[in-house]
């Protein structure tokens, strides 16, 4: 019988044991060691860090500092931000000693690109062995923090310090730092989806923080659409889809002044009451976007909801697109953005190229966009025309100039709307002044719009950048941005009520408040056939600051007649609307106005809503005003001066809130 060689088996056993030990040791090396936090700046102060100078203050910043662009990309609530007293201040912030025990030091960094002047340093024995600076150099750059890493394996077990430095006082003369960590791994680079989640979460939180202040303002309108809080301006891409009216709008979630343009979003079943939805579009900082400017929404021929908008932050404006499912709530930007660039124009240079608007005609799909051809020197303000080359609307060609403004004083055209009304075409434009419209004909063969009638959409400087939709009833519904409110109230800006646009038999453009708004009417007052004499005004029994008024007045022999709203008890103060037969004066905005030969009465439809007043005059003219009477001034009266007039009918309703 053969006997095993004991020495052989002993050697094998030893070999196996050593192999297991080696494997275990190898596993110990490969296993992830936990990260070591150096600083996250979430405390009430800098702890044992040493501060010199004025740039860093005595405690971490909590986001954006006064007069600074929005700071994004940091974690938690606190960070190092040396913009404490603007770019002029300087200083240093130095950590206590720590031992290097991992192969990498990872950190979030932002701010100015000034090597050795706005930077973070790793010090060993007091000497700089690693350094990093911010990336921002130009006004188009951002305050976003991004991950950076140093490989420090060669300094294993050495004592070290972190020093954050601001020694630059010019543009971008500051540094932002957060979340300094020792790790055996480099930081994961965030994806576009990560950025979207982070930026939208931060934007929504900022808006929520201002809600209570905005809602507490007694001058805030209650039946005009507005953002939940903060700044809003242009209505963007209104669209009726699957039983909802969708409204997007220019929105700054970070304050009640202009900046940081996003697209807010709301929807309504009845055109009256609105449901606020999550922010739809955000600036993709990783792709160089600074602002999401105005644009349009549409349903592609393939049935997909799409937004096309002007993307700002690149060397030249670009038109980008985003897609959504049918609910139109969660939007994804096209990976192939930009959708349109200035290369489409060939040798034609278009300045201030922005604000695309979509329309269809005879099976063709078009965009118009505003701009000018001579650096806004006047005389070359234009609307350009583009046609889609596929059903996905991802391929476009330039067809040329659809329209050039005939007035040489007009320098640029913004927010063009081009749509069919009856058998005519209407072009509405915003030319840095009162919004204008042109009525005429569109030749799809020559790609030209020939205007035969011209008018003013609204005569005040409080109305701008309207946008419109075609609804399920075939109505053209338009909203404008109401501007000119006081700052510092937690909100700024609203929209007009929805206007229904029609053409009269004579070809005039008519505007009326959407009849759905009548569902908001409450307590009422009615009177007919009242004479008005000089010095004897008629005082309404119904008073208030949220009213709808329909007044029909025969001017008679009066030199002037009209209404006084928000009138004080002593009659000295009021918001006055007066007509003298040739001119209508709406709270200081004067417009030429004469009754047509077939008209006998001045017909005023007035919407009074806290600090907003809209006046529709004989269905064909409009004036929007922002007003700030005293809170106690609530009276309503009708008057005639220098003769007699007659009130054919007067109806007043108290109006309920849409929220």
From TrEMBL:
GO molecular function: beta-fructofuranosidase activity
Documented EC number(s): 3.2.1.26
Record domain Glycosyl hydrolase family 32 C-terminal: where: 516-653
Keywords: Glycosidase, Hydrolase, Signal
Signal keyword on record: yes
Signal sequence segment: 1-24
Similarity annotation: Belongs to the glycosyl hydrolase 32 family.
Name listed for the protein in its UniProt record: beta-fructofuranosidase
Organism field: Pedosphaera parvula (strain Ellin514)
């Amino acid at each position: 019988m053969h006997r095993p060689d004991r020495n052989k088996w002993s050697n094998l056993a030893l070999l196996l044991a050593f192999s297991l030990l080696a494997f275990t040791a190898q596993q110990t090396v490969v296993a992830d060691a936990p990260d070591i936090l150096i600083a996250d700046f979430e405390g009430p102060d800098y702890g044992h860090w040493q501060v010199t100078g004025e740039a860093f203050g005595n405690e971490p910043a909590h986001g954006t500092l006064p007069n600074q662009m929005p700071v994004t990309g940091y974690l938690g609530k606190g960070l190092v931000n040396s913009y404490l007293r603007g770019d002029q201040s300087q200083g240093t912030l130095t950590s206590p000693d720590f031992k290097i025990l991992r192969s990498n030091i990872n950190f979030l960094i932002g701010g100015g690109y000034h090597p050795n002047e706005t930077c973070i340093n790793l010090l060993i024995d007091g000497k700089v062995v690693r350094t990093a600076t911010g990336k921002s150099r130009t006004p188009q750059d951002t305050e976003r923090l991004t991950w950076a890493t140093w490989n420090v394996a060669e300094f294993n077990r050495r004592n070290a310090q972190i020093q954050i430095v601001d020694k630059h006082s010019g543009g971008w003369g500051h540094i932002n730092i957060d979340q300094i960590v020792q790790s055996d791994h480099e930081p994961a680079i965030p994806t576009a989806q990560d950025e979207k989640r982070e930026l939208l979460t931060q934007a929504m939180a900022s808006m929520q923080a201002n809600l209570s202040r905005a809602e507490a303002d007694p001058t805030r309108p209650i039946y005009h659409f507005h953002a939940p809080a903060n700044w809003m301006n242009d209505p963007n891409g209104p669209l009726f889809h699957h039983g909802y009216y969708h409204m997007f709008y220019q929105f700054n979630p970070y304050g009640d002044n202009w900046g940081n343009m996003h697209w807010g979003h709301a929807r309504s079943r009845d055109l009256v009451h609105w449901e606020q939805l999550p922010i739809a579009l955000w600036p993709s900082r990783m792709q160089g976007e600074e602002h999401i400017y105005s644009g349009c929404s549409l349903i592609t021929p393939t049935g997909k909801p799409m937004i096309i908008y002007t993307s700002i932050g690149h060397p030249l404006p670009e038109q980008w697109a985003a897609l959504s499912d049918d609910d139109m709530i969660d939007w994804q930007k096209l990976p192939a953005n930009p959708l349109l660039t200035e290369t489409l124009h060939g040798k034609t240079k278009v300045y201030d190229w922005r604000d695309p608007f979509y329309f269809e005609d005879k099976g063709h799909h078009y965009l118009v966009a505003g701009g000018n051809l001579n650096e806004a020197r006047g005389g070359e303000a234009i609307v350009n025309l583009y046609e889609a080359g596929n059903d996905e609307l991802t391929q476009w060609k330039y067809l040329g100039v659809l329209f050039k403004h005939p007035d040489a004083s007009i320098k640029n055209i913004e927010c063009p709307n081009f749509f069919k009304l009856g058998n005519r075409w209407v072009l509405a434009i915003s030319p840095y002044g009162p919004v204008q419209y042109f009525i005429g004909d569109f030749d799809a063969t020559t790609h030209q719009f020939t205007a035969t009638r011209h008018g003013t959409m609204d005569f005040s400087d409080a109305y701008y950048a309207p946008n419109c939709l075609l609804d399920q009833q075939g109505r053209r519904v338009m909203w404008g941005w109401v501007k000119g409110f006081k700052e510092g109230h937690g909100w700024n800006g609203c929209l007009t009520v929805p206007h229904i646009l029609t053409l009269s038999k004579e070809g005039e453009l008519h505007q009326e408040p959407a009849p759905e708004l009548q569902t908001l009417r409450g307590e009422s007052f009615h009177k007919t056939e009242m004479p008005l004499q000089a010095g004897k005004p008629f005082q309404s029994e119904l008073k208030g600051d949220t009213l709808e008024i329909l007044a029909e007045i025969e001017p008679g022999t009066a030199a002037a007649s009209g209404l006084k709203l928000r009138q004080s008890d002593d009659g000295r103060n009021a918001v006055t609307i007066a007509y003298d037969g040739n001119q209508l004066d709406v709270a200081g905005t004067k417009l030429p106005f004469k009754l047509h030969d077939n008209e006998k009465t001045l017909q005023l439809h007035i919407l009074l809503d806290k600090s907003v007043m809209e006046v529709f005059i004989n269905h064909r003219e409009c004036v929007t005003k922002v007003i700030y009477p005293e809170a106690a001034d609530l009276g309503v009266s009708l008057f005639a001066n220098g003769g007699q007039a007659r009130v054919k009918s007067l109806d007043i309703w108290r109006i309920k809130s849409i929220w």
